[in-house]
Design goal:
Elements lengths: L1 H19 L7 E2 L15 E5 L12 E5 L6 E8 L3 H13 L5 E5 L9 E13 L8 E11 L6 E12 L5 H23 L5
Parallel strand pairs: 1-4, 2-5, 2-6, 3-6
Antiparallel strand pairs: 3-4, 6-7, 7-8
Helix pairs in contact: 2-3
Length: 198
């Protein structure tokens, strides 16, 4: 009876010890907005940025990768700080706000009437490995439409595409390639958003 009791106590102690071991934390990564580009102007344009539309496979904090044209997967450990569309929307707002007198706001949850709306479609946001399986290329592709907020008519539209090879097949190098590709897309988007519509 005493031996059975000791075994039970030992098992309970092991269980409690296991519960006290913290789970392995997930490494989180974020991307950076464009640097400020202030321009002195007497007028300002309010632009409402909609949440990015994206396929379900990209609407996640997991970092996507492909090895072949028909394959799609995710890295096992690292993740973005938020779902990719939400993270990129914040980056776009931060990058546009204050640029060339522009005021950028979230299109949802506001009663302000903007001068324009931006509708964005995230087409590609993944690390692409070639046949050699060495360091991948970060690929970001974003479709943008400028809309009249009163009629929702399309004023202009563009698609921006950037591919940046990672310097090594490591988490940090791959995320840095994502950051560079995203910066290129954001820069083109900011130039497009500040153009006068036809």
């Amino acid at each position: 009876m005493t031996m059975t009791r000791n075994i039970l106590f030992s098992a309970l102690a092991l269980l409690l010890a296991a519960c006290a071991i913290p789970a392995k934390s997930i490494k989180l990564y974020r991307l950076t907005p464009l640097a400020d580009n202030p321009v002195e102007t007497s007028t300002s344009m309010v632009v409402a940025v909609e949440r990015l539309q994206a396929p379900a496979a990209l609407d996640t904090p997991r970092i996507a990768l492909t090895c072949y044209a028909i394959d799609f997967d995710y890295f096992a450990g690292p993740e973005w700080v938020d779902n990719a569309p939400a993270m990129l929307q914040r980056l776009i707002i931060e990058s546009l706000d204050g640029s060339n007198g522009m005021v950028a706001i979230d299109a949802h949850g506001t009663t302000a009437i903007p001068d324009e709306r931006l509708r964005l479609d995230l087409r590609t946001f993944q690390a692409e490995y070639g046949k050699d399986r060495e360091a991948p290329t970060a690929h970001v592709r974003l479709s943008v439409k400028r809309l009249d907020p009163k009629t929702m008519a399309i004023l202009d539209s563009r698609t921006f595409d950037a591919r940046i090879p990672a310097s090594a097949n490591t988490q940090r190098a791959i995320v840095e390639a994502f950051n560079s590709a995203t910066t290129e897309v954001l820069d083109n988007l900011r130039n497009f958003a500040t153009l006068k519509t036809p």
